Amino acid sequence: MTTDSVVDRQTPVRILQICDRSHDFAKEFNLLEEVALAFPAPEYAFTYCLLSGAVDAAAANRMRCAVHSFHIPKNKIRGSNLRLLFALLHYIRRENFDVIITHRFKPWLLIALISPWLPNCRFISFLRAFKQFDRRRRQWLARLLLNRRWRMVGVSKAVQQDLVEHGIPRRYTAVILNAINVDGILSRQLTSADARAQLGLETQDLIVGAIGRAQRIKGHTYLIEAFARLAGNFPNAKLVIIGGGELEAALRKQADATGFGNRILLTGAINDGFRLLSAFDLFVLPSLMEGFGLSIAEAIASRVPVIGTRVGGVPEAVGPDGLLVESQNAEQLAQAMERVLSWPESQRAAYADRLYHRLTSEYTLEQYHQNYRRLVAELLATA
Question: Is residue 253 included in any domain, yes or no?
């Protein structure tokens, strides 16, 4: 068996992917769906499964695979739900799956608990966030249940290192970088004029933008403070933050207190916010922590100049030429923003182009698919 093919098998490889629920924030470009597209028939028989909710017909049509739903209420998805554990075990045995792929922590926990009764299965668990195994109980479970039939996969080298630092043996870890559907993003993107019109912005405005939930970890409070430091030097500059959340009211209050509240727009949640990236002259990701930094990668794919914080997987996403600042440092962020905004338009475009060409050579959907197939083949080859 080669490292990226299973063509020597007489029967298709049966793969089950388990997600906690449907994620509606990026319906057309959901990387969870892209996993299904990595395993086409007849070489593979892929099933896309949700624990809560149902797979809609449009998603099933896009993935071209079998779908299954357990219809479990969200608050019942936990390791102590014996009925769910037995239902999963029965379903996996009945369908005779060879490989189980999970996304996020709860699906990992459920499958890990029943894995001793699935001796013929191989397991891939995809993790996007940090500190998933910072609790001693989780570390104990991992030490007890993980073996060479498992791979714990990070979306970046930083996430992989975090797993290792929290007790996951490196030999049981791997990295599969996120992919960016550049053609899909650009095909759905509004023109700059239309995006600005939707946001209520003027053509002559100089727009600093961010996309992310209004939560502390996203660092928007530092972005607002940084914008206030430079706003006086750029009278046509405005700040746009796309994303609702628990801190939205607090951020609005902070924005008004700066004296530049009329130039700071908090839009609330907007599905497929990447469609509005063309409205921005500069994209800023001020996060305190990011497993990868998908929004900054989408901005790069849209040829928008970017600034990110030096945390988690963001340096990997922007590459060696990307502008990075320390997190929680409004002064440093303001200086970097002022630097880019002071560049002539041609210099901003050249910077954005450098990042774009690097991204589109290293984060392709084809590579994403190949990496998944290679990992499955490697696991199936283990005795």
Answer: yes
pLDDT tens for each residue of 51-106: 998 888 888 888 889 999 999 998 899 989 999 999 999 999 999 999 999 998 99
248-276 burial code (b ≥16 CB/10 A, e <16): beebbebbeebebbebbbbbeebeebbbb
If one counts the domains in the chain, the total is: 2
The reported pTM is 0.84
- 160 and 177 in contact (C-beta within 8 Å)? no
What is the rounded CA–CA span in Å between residue 102 and residue 92? 13
Ordered alpha helix ranges (H), the chain: 31-37, 57-63, 82-95, 105-114, 136-145, 157-165, 182-188, 192-199, 220-230, 248-257, 294-301, 314-318, 330-342, 345-362, 365-380
* Residue (of 91, 105, 93, 83) closest to 49 by Cα position: 91
Tell me: the pLDDT tens digits for 22-36?
Answer: 754 334 457 788 899
CATH label of the domain that carries residue 206 = 3.40.50.2000
Q: Which domain holds residue 268?
A: 182-362
Does residue 8 belong to any structural domain of this protein? Answer: no
In a domain, 134, yes or no: yes
Whether residue 297 is found in the same domain as residue 349: yes
Same domain, residue pair 174 and 186: no
What spatial distance separates the first Cα and last Cα of the chain, rounded to whole Å?
13
pLDDT tens track for 173-194: 999 988 888 888 899 999 999 9
Residue 146 maps to a domain: yes
For residues 370 and 352, membership in a common domain is answered with no
